[in-house]
Structures are given as structure tokens and as C-alpha cells.
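Quick bug: Acyltransferase output formatted oddly.
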Amino acid sequence: MLISVQALRALAAWMVVGHHFIQVFFEFDVDTPLAYLFADKGGIGVDIFFVISGLVIFLATADKALTPWQFMLMRLARIAPAYWFYTLLMALVVLAVPSMFPEAQVVPSHVLLSLLFIPAENPGGFGVYPLLDVGWTLNFEMLFYVLFAVALWVRGSYRLWVVAALLYLVCCIISPALNLASGFYSNDIVLEFLMGIVIGMLYRRGLCRARAWLPLLGIAVALAAIYHGADVPRALEWGVPSALLVISCVALEPYFQGSRILKLLGDCSYSVYLIHVLVLVAGRWVAERMGLDPYAILPVCIAVIALGAYGSYQWLEKATYRTLKRWLGVEERVIISRQKY
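Here's what came back:
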């Protein structure tokens, strides 16, 4: 895994944490510049994740003779166990301490659909969300994995076009025609996976190398575009700047190489994403009962999220992934790029 991408994954995860802190504690009603920035822009962490996902999946499969079945088994082994664990933990918390999540409802059919990555209306009445609401992004991820698995039947140079065609078919024709999950899959955010694939193709061709000033300029332009925003679809407003951030960081890879801390932060980012809402809501619940200021409880929440994510990565994600790969009899090599710096 590219260390620059790991660093960006970590940054994206903690941006989402900041965004949800403002939502959970203040319902986005804030009056300080930094809080407003997280409230208004923190959600872009998801877009960065999607671009990175397209990049990583393309690079991870580029030099392998994987069948679609093997690919899906490995993706499920990597993504599902931790998500299932925290979904079931969420169900237990809602049942045991209903006052902590007053809007959440544990309905067996909805829990099952959540575990199967099938979008469905949340019984709480706030849209198409799984029980662990951050899992809505994983529903898109699983769609991307299924379509990319189909694209494995063709040569690597054609996979972008196959995935693009399949995304168009599912999201622009089938989903609206059948009104799948209230049009959930019609979101243009799916285009960000394609942006990641394009970056992966450029990287393998050695076209992501540049003097430091150029990617730094790219980062500055991307941040300026994110800050000012535009009244355009999300894939343009946040997807394109996210892609520019990713390709700029990839071009700076020589300056990131060898950083174990950044690698670890990136490794833990998935668990950070999965557990942070549970921790933040628990923090709000405690703060309300003890009369604490939200910003006083924030450092405790950050520490619990960080430590919890580390433990989750080491003993839940990594351990179950290795065990499942052994049981399933499939292997996934470390990404080794042909590009030399």
C-alpha cells in the first residue's frame, strides 16, 4: 500500500469524525469558523475514501490472475467481519440503552438487510440507512466490488470502461426504472470510484511523478475548490477535488515512504470510521448526564476512538482477515508497483 494513500485515508477518516462530532453534539448549529468548516466540509472524507477505493482495488488486482469469485471472497473477508461486529454491537446498545439512540429501532428484517449490504429505509424514519448508519457508504462499496468483479473477466486496460458501463447500467437505468431503495444507487458519488481507477492506470504507466511543487500546487487548488464549493453535482464539487488530492499525494509518495506511523494510521482508518459514531453518541450521553461541555468530552472521545480503532484493527480486522483467507484458500499479495522513483 502506498504510504501517501494511507496518510490520506487517515485524514479522510478523521475529517468524518469531526463532521459527525458537530452533528452529534450540535446538530450542525455552530458559530465558530473551525466548527463550521467541519460541519460544512467534513463529509468530503467519504469522497476521498471512494476515490482511494477505486485506486486501491485497481492496483491490487492489476498483476493477479483472480477469478471474480476469489476477488469477492477476499473483499468480503476484509470488509464484512468488522462491519458485522459493530452492526450487532449497535443493535445490542440500542436494546440495552435505548435513551442513547432515541431514534434508532432494532427491526430484525432491517438488521438482516444491513448485514447483507442491501440498502433499505431505516425504521427510524431518516432515510435509506443501515442500522449502523455510516454503513451507507459500504453499500456503495459492495456495488463497486460486484461490478469490478465482473470486469475481472477482461484485460486490465479495459476494466475502467467495463466498470463505467456497468455503473451506468445499474445507476442510471436499472435503479431509476425499478426505484431500487428509493433511488439510492442513482447517486453520482459512484463516479468517484472511476476517478480512482483512472489514477491507478496513470500510476502504473509512471505518469504520477512530478517535482514537489506541482503536486503541492494541486493540493492547494483542491483545498481551495473544496472550501469555496459550487452549485454542481457532488461528483464534481467534491469528487474532482478529492481525485486531485489523491493523485497529488501519490505524486509525493517518495516523501512519505518509510513512515510506519502514517501506515498505521491508514491501517486503522476503517475501524475509526466504523466505531466513531458509537463513541461520539456515548460521549454525548455521558456529557448530558454529567453536565459537561461538548468540547471537554471531545479529547476523551478522540482517545477512545483512536485506541479502540487500533485494537479493532489488530484483533478484529487483521486477525479475522488472515483466518478467513486461510479457510477460504485464497491469497492476496501486497501491492507492488511497477513504478520506480
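Actually, after a second look the formatting is fine. The longest helix spans residues 294-328. Closing.
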